Amino acid sequence: MTHQHPELADEQAYIDYAYECLESSRVAAWRLRELTEADLGGTYQARFERNAFDEALIKRLTDLDLGDAALVFGRIDRTGELPDSLETFHIGRLAVADEDSEPVVVDWRAPVAEPFYRATGRDAMGLVRRRHFAVEGQSLVGIEDELFGVGHLGLGHDEGLDEGDQSGPDDSSGLRGYSTLLAALERGRTGTLGDIVATIQGEQDEIIRSPQQGVLVVQGGPGTGKTVVALHRAAYLLYTHRFPLEDQGVLVIGPNRVFLRYIERVLPSLGEAGIEQVVLADLVPGVQFLRASEDVPGEPYADSPTAARVKGDVRMSDLIDQAIRTRQRALRSKLVLPFRSGYVRLDVAESERIVKAARRRFRRHNSGRKFIENELWRALAESYFDPEVGPGLVKDALRGTPEIREALGWMWPVLTPAELLHDLFGSKALLKLAAQGVFDESAALALFRPRSETVDDVRWTSADAALLDDARDVLGPKLGKDGKIDELDEIRTYGQIVIDEVQDLTPMQLRMATRRSLSGAMTIVGDLAQATGPLAPRDWEDVLAHLPDRRPPRVIGLSVGYRIPGQIMELANKVMAVATPSLRAPQSVRVGDVGPLIVRAESYQQLGVTVAFEVQSMMESLPNGSLGIIAPDSMIPDLSEHLTAAGINHGTATTTGLDKGVTLVPVSVIKGLELDGVVVVEPARIVSDTEHGMRSLYVALTRPTQRLTVVHAAELPPPLR
């Protein structure tokens, strides 16, 4: 930009005024909170209302704390109600009003702000001008104008434009605020994902503001912004449907903890800090799971590829049902117990009748236990010669005896999901019995693992989470001492569920997510070309078959790649053409400074040294950038030693996230992340070590925003030669 926009000073003054109003709101909120804190007495109702008011104030204070995020990032001018009049609205991260309650900044999610994202040359939506701000902290450093209806109201096409920023609504790029967008894309990464609220494009905004109901599928290739679009949609829906969504809850499910750490700042930066962000294992209480570095094939206790496929198969639900049914059984022999001057008895046939009656009456296993107990006491009482003896007297006399406990435990044990699966997976006989008519014997035995001493010692795999959840649904919660169900032990449902990298979820995991949907409203995002899970879907129908179907699903595609430079995307597309030839790659809008570099190490022994050298070279080229070394999981420890020997301070994604300037990232957790510079190590091993290796390589190659280097000792896979 060679000259200053003539309205820069005026807009800076307006932004300063907006921050003053924001600070006034914050001060007023603190004063209100101090008043409520000073009054600690009163009735229970008064204290309850005061606490609720205090929680609302705390949320408001949290919303008002923007940190380094820009408050205002744009402005729209539209035709007013009077002839030749204009209405002006400044668009920002949250709504701000002055002391007279007049709007100073309009929340980006408000209906009046929609033209800021959606207006085009063909449909101006009433706009005369759209203005984009380039902001650093509270300082306005640049303005980009787009004019609609050139000459309208005396606005010339070039009036007030920074030189080089004359891309209007009909610009050939097809992008809104092209210069502002490119500046944002080329800004260095910080180790956590940033929001795109200032640069949302039209096709992205269509998804964000799409109706809440039903399942919305977003197919997007690498760099299309599908993750941030999904998160912005969550924030938009919560703003638009504050009641009832705030009470119903919004749930975001990510593929792993590295990813959750990477996206953790997006929603708070948009003023929505109360949305739950989890991996599926977080939804299973009371058990321990393997760490990500342990939950890979070949590690002790981890699933074999066969076991992972079987555990993800939707038929596992039938296997679990049968495993529970095998624990609902008649006595093996007659139960005879001394009582008073005689005996009480329960024969095998009567015990079978009781079990069958419980099966008919109760859908959930644990709910039937009370019925079994009552029927047992009734049958024992009826077997006694004195008709005056009722079930209560027999119960009082015998309920503590080992024989009764053993009989009840055999006929209808009270089970937790962990207890059920611990018993099942630790017994080949139980596995064969439960798998009859569901899986063949070899598939069932792939689930076998040596039994731990106690169920509390078991460390479960990520694939087990969906099985534990399925068992939890069928078993139901244990009954309390009062005979009632603990509602806190029930599976919680949510008004809106967002799932990222959904293409890697198995049918059982998809059912687990569906179980938590209150009304069938979901936003699922992913890319079939990046599907590397044990049961990778062929098309979206394979995924939708296991999701809510109360309304017809909608599938929307993101076609533009914003993050990845064209030269890098061109190389990655050669891999994609082999991995998923039926899918189209996104069209990149950026051209990088340099193309990808492929470096061959002299030998396998020199591979680590070569990687360290290339990392140092990239650090010099991108001194303030975030760099990642993507490698097969098994190579990470050795590469770490070489980086340390070369004096390169670095972290590992599974322990430090992307907080370090240089990070080693196992290929198993790279999905969804982005870095300024990437070194991909030994593509042939990436391809050979994973089930969908070519897709894993495609994912690895599409992580950088600026530079890519491929280092190898073995022969390159054919698409890269």
How would you sum up this structure in a few lines?
The protein is α/β, with parallel strands linked by helices and 721 residues long. It has 27 helices and 24 strands. The chain has a six-stranded mixed sheet with strand order 3-4-2-1-5-6, with helices on both faces.
Task: Please describe what this structure looks like.
It is a single chain. This protein is an alpha/beta fold and 721 residues long. It folds into four domains: 8-185, no CATH class; 202-284 and 492-561, 3-Layer(aba) Sandwich (Rossmann fold); 335-411, no CATH class; 566-720, Rossmann fold. The protein is built from 27 helices and 24 strands. The strands form six sheets. A six-stranded mixed sheet has the order 3-4-2-1-5-6, sandwiched between helices. A six-stranded parallel sheet has the order 9-8-14-15-7-16. It is globular and about 105 Å long. The model is unreliable at 156-167 (pLDDT under 50).
